[in-house]
Queue: 2 jobs
Job 1
Amino acid sequence: MHPHAAVRIRALLGGAVTAVLIAGGVLVAGNAARAAAAELPTVVINEVESDAAEKDWVELKNVGTDPVDVGGWILKDDDDSRTKAIPAGTTIAPGGYLTVTVDENPNKFGLGAADSARLFLPDGATLVDSTSWGPSHATHTWGRCADGTGAFVQTTASTKNAANACPDAADTLKINEAVSDGGSPDDWIEFVNTGDVPVDAGGLVVRDEDQKNPYTIPAGTWVAAGGYLVLDKGTHFAFGLGKGDSVRLFAADGTTLLDSTTWPAGTHANPSWGRCPDASGTFAMTTAATKGAANSCTPVTPTDPEPEPADANVVINEVESNGGTPGDWVELKNLDTVNAADLSGWRILDGDASHTAVPFPAGTTIESGGYLIVEESQLGFGLGGADSVTLYRGTVDPANVKDTTSWTAHASATWARCPDGTGTFRDSGASTKGLANDCSDPSGPGTDPEPGVEVWPGGTTMTAVPTDIPFSGDLSGLDYEAPALGDPTLWAVTNGTGTLSKLAPGAGGAWNGAAGWGAGKQLAYPDGSIAPDAEGVTVADGGSAGGVYVATERSSAAKSVSRPSILRFDVSGASSTLTATNEWNLGADLTATVGTIGANSGLEGITWVPDAVLTARGFLDEATGQRYDPALYPNHGTGVFFVGLEQTGDVYAYVLDLTGSTFTRIATIDTPGAMEVDYEPETQLLWAVCDEVCDGRTATLQIGSSGRYEVTHRYARPAASANYANEGFALAPQAACVAGAKPVYYADDANTPDTAGGPGVSLRVGSVRCTVPGGGNPGTGPGEGGGGGTDPAPGAEPDPSALTTETKDTVTGPSSARAGSTITVTIGASHAGEQVDGYVFSTPTALGTRTVNAAGTIRLTIPVSLAPGDHRVAVYDASGALIGWFALAVTPAALASSGADADGGLPLAAALLAAGAVLVGVRIASRRRSSADRVPTTGWIDTKPVPGARKGRFSL
């Protein structure tokens, strides 16, 4: 038996979801021989009978357009000593067949269970075609599918001198079993091949009761005769199976229904919903899930019902649905001030019916008057911007509801009862996890007017964008791509399903699904698993032709595990699923400096900035402590990626090795509230955008004299717009300006209706004024035309004598750091929201003003010029009072590598930059490589410092 045939047989008998070679080695060898001998006639072996009741035979077919005289041609099996000559004068017409019975005289021979059939010219040495099979006879015959041209497979019937009977999964593949609750590792669907030959299920489409998120079975997914095919949620399909749900199997056209089943309303398929008897009977609840095996249809022995949980006076008290640590959470309170509450067997469920409420373990109690925090990892799901939480005493049943609450958008802090434990729900003043609720007026960023926050520089409204894509929530990142030729594209990612949509402009301001894209394409990790929780999207140099980059938080198959990654996708193909070509997982790098990242607090936004802009403006590379030198980073292309992290609200700059999965972080930009980032080539500004948590504020940043990005403006949301959960933001290019304004697009993650009871809206458009870069009058107002200002001291210069042993280590930080690096300083959660000032001694050197985040930390950058040696870092409050200090040993800043040290990277980077310069000149209207990417020589605008604001820090 040929070794490739053995590979095929093993794959068929295994019944696994895998693509296999189908007699490929033999077939390829025969085709190669034919190609090398172009004069060979167009005759092929088409079908073989090796186990006939009468005589074995080999069928030939003329696949050409002219008759072929095969007289004298020779047939052999796998033994060269056994030959069978075709009688002289035998001709096969175009498209015709000839069957040669090899098991009869003269020179007869039989065909074995593991054997070959070979066709030679009359010289007995020139091979025309061949095929091999084994280790057993075909059930019917061994033939080409499609007839005459395809690869060899087991046919479904013997068709001597006629077109082959090819197996069709649409005829024999049936739904056999499904699990919607308690599956391993999650929901799954099982199919069975009821035929007597293997079939390729590739191309068939699987859905639940919803039309969204269809799963197309990959080509080459062979199912053995009588074998099973199992598809798992997350690894294969993206949808979840709920109560009273369905499984449907469609033909490759996606519309012809082949098989379906639905389990009872209000009931999960648990242990499983399967055919009884296996593979042939009607569907019923089985007695046990039998993944990949015959169904268990033994009669059920009644068991004692689950004991009724104890009653208790417990309420939902506070909810964190966005930005919690380590993720979302629900706080319960025991209102009984005398007795503890036993919550064994109680359950919590959100507003998504496809989710499963996990019972609280036995022994779960709340002390009298106490609180219980149920973390996202315990819930098994996250909470949305428009969602609900219901507490059940026992099973999920309306009769068991103990408490419930719902909200229409994420709270600015948390959603809580006021007064604590007894009042109605409203936005709290601050998060008080495990403590009495803060019922002061909400004081989150953007709630109260702040000095330096300006009116939005554009229209006062956001309006719904007409689209034929039925976005229903979770729309997150946006990116506007304007190619040099042709129409622009609006790229959009949906985080819940991990979908990338390509929108094209339509009539009346509409943005509809682009041709061939429908409502979007499923995204998958490089290993083929789905679906990444896609939050941000961008293109780089060369536009989407060079790939689309997506920022992600986690995998939908492991929602409780953080996976903050950048994924690259080739979007040039026609497949409905896009598999990432690269993954850069930033998790280990980020957690080393920011600590544990919540599974739902990963990467939120992504954008790309050209090297030419960064180097011209003197961008500081914090990895080296020197000005950014692209030549130090071979294979990174011509720019740097900037990502926003929800956990901290900061932006991080990464240089990616585009040939693999490695990267280098070169900057940390202290900009809380960056739920989206966007680069504007015309102004060379970096936009940091926050959602409803920050009252919809945005900020612009520019590279200052220090080489770091500094805030230039802070803007309120458009005055007449509601506080939407805008997680996507995309500026149109200068070419889209009309009457001094250009569009800016917003993605509302919560799909908020514009009117009460109206349809949800995910995509909106506003406007921002068009700013012509260069040559303009910098203005006469305060700070116009300036370079961003400097960090002021917090009053009088601090006195080093206050740094005593009594005040030492009341704030903490690392024991050593390199000059030019950024460090994290822990002050304490009690100072959260306060503005503080950092200094380094011996000679007092201001490190800038920072706002303490919710975790009680700030980040300070050690000056590159600071002399190596022992120093002290001190933190002062807004009044100038010392909070505390710690000792810090400063080591020299790293030196930039020379060209000789960069493994040839300098010439490569120079070539890439030169190519980039050419692109800038050619693609005048390009979103990512426009003429505005070049640094103007005069009159650059939007670099003034915010009046009264300290450079390098803003509170959205």
Job 2
Amino acid sequence: MLRSRPRGARMTDSEELEDETTARSGAQDFASDVRRRISEFESRKTFGSLLSAPKMIRRELQEMSFFGVLTAVPALTVVICLLVTAFLAYHSGIADGMKDEASMNVNGDLAAFLPEGSAVAANIAEVEEDWTTNVMIIYVESGRNNITDRDILIQMDLIEAALNSVPSDDGEDDEIIYILSISSVVKEINSSAPRVADAFVRNAGQACPVNGVCDWLAENASEFILDNGDVVGGYNIPEEQDRIDQIIGELPPNAQDKLVRDVGEKKNGTFVDTEAGYWNRAVIIVGVAENDKNGDGIPDVSTSELIKRTQKRIEDISIANNWGGIDKNGNCIDDDTTFEEELCLMMTLTGPTPITNAVTEYTFILFWDIFPVGVVAVASVLFLFHCDLFQTGRIRWEQGIKVVIIAGLPTLCSVFATLGLIGFTNYEVTMTVIIVGPIILALGVSYGLHITNRYAESKGTPKEKMALALQSTGRAVFLSAVTTVIGFVSLILTPMAPIKTVGVSLAGGIIIVYLYTMIMVPNLTMLLDLKKPSHDPPKVFIFAVRAPIRWSRIALTGFILLMLTSALIYQPQINENVDLLEMAPQEDTPAVEKMITYSQEFEGGQVGMILVKSDIAAEPEFLAPGDNQAQKDPFKNLYKIENLSDMVNNVDSTTAVSIAFLMKSVGASLNFSGSNTIAEFCEPMPDVPKEVCNLLFAEEYNASATFWTVLMELDRDQSAGTEIQSFLISVFYDGLSPELRHFFVSKDFQRSLIYIDMPFMDVKETEWRQSTIDGYAEDRDDFDFQPSGLIGVAAVTIDVNNLIVGSQWQSLGFALLFTVVTLGFVFRDAKYAALTTFPVVFTVAMQWSVMVILDVDLSLVTVMIGSILVGVGVDFSIHIANRVRELGGTLEAIQDSCASTGMSLFEAFVVTSCGLMTAYLIPIPAIKPFVTVIIILLLFAAISALLLLPAIYATFVKMGWGLSGGSDAMRRKAGLSGGASAVIAELDAAESYDAVLLSSADDAW
């Protein structure tokens, strides 16, 4: 029992001796411990530790600044990421059904593919100085009656009156500039007689030198004509069918073909006769204005609103007038509840503007409809690969679900964030950006899997395991992201803006995926504390990689032969073909479906024009000199315009109309009740107006003679003066309604259009027609007559088609070059970087054989395949390259790396393919061949990384060339180390060449 000594009492001798003994014993123990530590001291290790101390301190500081902050509050970090995603998702288009305006700024116009400064774009801009290029087409189908029957024409007139409520206002009040149809032409010609007569007297009054008297006479005559105008014919559909038939029968054939067609008889979806015996198809061509009265840069009425308004009016009139309708099989739809027979009439809104609007509005609506399918597909594949079903035969539900959440949720957030950022910034994109979602969804999950696999195999606390996972795989994931971004950034170098936007969107998307992965995956993994057992790689991959290593030269020769065959034999067979309709959503999109029908049945759709710069102004002059030198001769240039139109009409499947078609349609001999009275006033007139007066009113020509007929006769009659032709042309101009006149001729009469139409066809056929038409125009180019080449859809198609070939090589070359450069910097070895990139070159070369075998053309979508493959395919090679380099670059290292990585490559291929396959559900034809080729080439990329890359490495090792030739690799291979330089080299190498996968042969797949 211990007793305490009283405070202040002196120590006894025995106590002092005991304390001295204890102190001596402690000193001996300390000395002994010091001697033991000195004996255990190793200068090499201590020296190495001292040298590595700064890097260890730096690493700790980095962990404190990055990893520590990153994983300090896991739950809060994940919640913040989800809130940011929710905000951006609102702008991604997924909520457009609940909003009035679309989130995405999608430009569906094919002209958007033209680069800045394009000659074709400049021509379009020049046309738009006087005319609109925004056109809607109402496609009219009649199942029982001739389109030219009065009842059908009345229905067309009702539609036209509802749309163009204020004629000749340049669209300021009703957004409609003009309407051209068989109905409007009938009305125009029916009302031409009084307007021409009125135009004559007004022109005569304007040209008369005695102002007061002439003006009085002209005014009185004009009133008389207008009072009796309805007797002759007003601006309406004639009451008599005979008069309608007469007007239409006198139209030139090219005008008839432009406005009405007999496409045959169709029943139950099959044409039973090539001719129905009557015109059963027609078009109503509508020119649309974009008014911006407040000058804010936004049209007062949006295209979408105008299309909805037009569609609503068509539907209302169809119901009110008992149209009935026609089904997709061509059968009339009859309503049994009514006693009156239906007209069996249908009108569908289509044309360039509605198609552009369909691409703009429905592209992302369709994408978000199918996107959930992609999410389920990718999640299912992730679960199957990581629930241990394939590895052990039984399902670990908790493990599989955790992997789906950890790897899938950040990727899902990345898709929403990427598309949401595009919508939030109002960044203009085109239809092609729809592929961004599936690609990001497919690629993103692999980044998270690298980290989770490493985490599951590590030991220690969750933070310790995650620190090790990020240390060993973080840089490798970064390398994969960088090389993928390089492949996508190469698309930005193309001259076509829509492909640039895809490059920007994909590159930005990968960056967002990387950020979400590095932020969310560590926190989700730690929160869920994922535990996964390691499994040996499947034997099939072990056996597969032995062959190219053992027979490396044979394998290498085989791959090179395949690549050369594809490049030399199949590449020249690639067809370039740009098809606007294939880039538009077709299912449940009547505008696109009917445009296809219009192209087939009407040989139209590729709307084009020739802009003619030539003075065709005509002014009435009474007192022009007899030698006609001071008199304008507009007919000379009008004749050239018509001659050029005739030449274009001779081109197969091409129709052309110009102002001359109206001259050939409007009668010049105005024989009506009262015309003889006007003719009595012709005698006292001066020679020029007298001659014109007699032409119009005194029956000098056949009653059916048109202005063109009379002008041609005057041109052949050498005694007739040019001033008579000019006066007559001036009367013709003024006799037209302003909107129809301006449809063909600019307001100053210095420019005119020849409208050209051709069906959608193969780009080579389109190019032949364009070159033929351009040749005709060039041959007729003169000092005072300057026609342009073909302008419009066909010209844009050809120009874009020529651009995609050059842009393919440009973007592909950039992607490969900068991928090699980047890998060279990372690996610190240009040779090793080039060898690692070679499988990607092989994969890119194989695209030509795949495209030819599958009959896939090089289009605005497939042109991006090469660059995308570089971005995606290089990941496969990087996985193996890093592993081989880590293990020393021996044959054994090559085999172990490829065998253990094989399953990861297979999983990456399957997951990526499932994500891309969802794009098959998008009803846009151009997307499907693109996805098919990409998936097949991804398989080539995985195979070449697994078989070609080891064959290359093995060949270099066997030949004694070495893979890198660096001192680190040789020292590691020989098992040598020593001195401070060796320690430094080992530490630097370890930091530079972090492995993507595990350093053991086991893989947490």
